[in-house]
């Protein structure tokens, strides 16, 4: 009798879990660089300063240092 209801509820929970997971991604503030590991934010001032600040060193790569930092138009 309640089988269908329960199944529907489980589907909803799975959907909610996936939405919740997507919101766990860290969004960096303006003026911060998002490391390529998708987990770490560092101040843009730390880019290309010769010291790796991202766990994956993505703040010191040629790609990061040669191209202008993409900024969000206000
Ligand atoms: Ca650095």
From TrEMBL:
One Pfam family, short name: Ldl_recept_a
InterPro entries: LDL_receptor-like_sf, LDLR_class-A_CS, LDrepeatLR_classA_rpt
SUPFAM superfamilies assigned to the protein according to its UniProt record, in alphabetical order: LDL receptor-like module (SSF57424)
Region annotated Disordered, chain positions: 53-74
Coiled coil: none
Alphabetically ordered keywords of this record: Disulfide bond
Descriptive protein name: Uncharacterized protein
